[in-house]
What we know:
The chain is mainly alpha-helical.
Amino acid sequence: MSAGYGGKEIPEMEAIIDERFLDWTQYIDEHGISNDDMTKPFDIGRSTQYLTTDIISHLCFGKPIGFVAKHEDVHGFLHTLETRLPIAEQFSVISELFTVISSVTRVPFLKRWMIPQNTDGSGVGRILGISHKAINDRLAQGIQHCKDDILTSFLRHNMHPDQAETEITVSLFAGTDTTATALRATLLYLLSSPPVYNRVCSEIRSRAHSSRVIQLRDAQRLSYLQACIKEGLRLFPPVTALRERLVPIQGDILCGLKVPGGVNLGFNTKGLLRNKTVFGCDANVFRPERWLRRDSECLKSMEKVYELVFGGGSTRCLGVKIATFSLNKFFVELLKRYDLALLNPEKPWRSVCHGIFFQSEFYIRIVKRDLETSG
């Protein structure tokens, strides 16, 4: 799967993501701009997830589902996830429930009632149906003649069509929400920290003037922006799951502690990323400057812990490259084109966590800047 998610078999990956960002900023220009005479509240929380969903769906299917264009929950996909995830969360914690459900769903008529089907008209089932049709179209056409996208990559590597159908749907869920959370949380920290906001805007606007979407290699040269992205992910990791590992039967010794064999061992991501020994006595504070220090040994320790945001080993996030594109382009395109302000600083958003986060009602005020004459 890594060839698809990592972009090795999608040479136009960055161009596709650029196209989605241009459509998104065009929507903001037409529907989200405030001026001296009026304020138009814009829910950047929902809008960000529409953007990430269209990015992933375009990379998966060769075209976006259309969340940005309609700026609504197409097919009720997000609503279904948000209402069912709390239930799924219980299954992940109480393993006995998962065992019972697995047994029950082996009965055909019960499975049809309990599990989304690709014939459903809305929700997750509707996305399964889109995946099912896309797979059949590619198989009928011949994989060697198909466009380069993630789904085609899966099939070229002999993934079974049923598995590909499920995997693509999981990608739309897991990849879009976690990336959107990283974008929203980091943006909230920026808007809540005027000195940081002003500094990163100054850096971006002094280097990015074109209406074209910035290329990743250029965004990664913006050192303060990179520090802001790392600091946002450090303070608000998008996934709170323990990412457990099974200790070998003979047991192990970790940090001087004997761990018995056969137990599941996880780690507290948020706790590790706020460790004061690693990140300093102000580890709970949003201070991107910590990433610009010259102490190489200290930076090395910080980077090593920071990498846990994306997991490790067999559960390391396969979509890191897509997320990296999105994180870098999002902040450059947003901050070079617009001036932003929170509308409700006393309650900036609605955020609910069920292992991953659902965030909405994140209203901001957007004023358009003139790229030809500003900065």
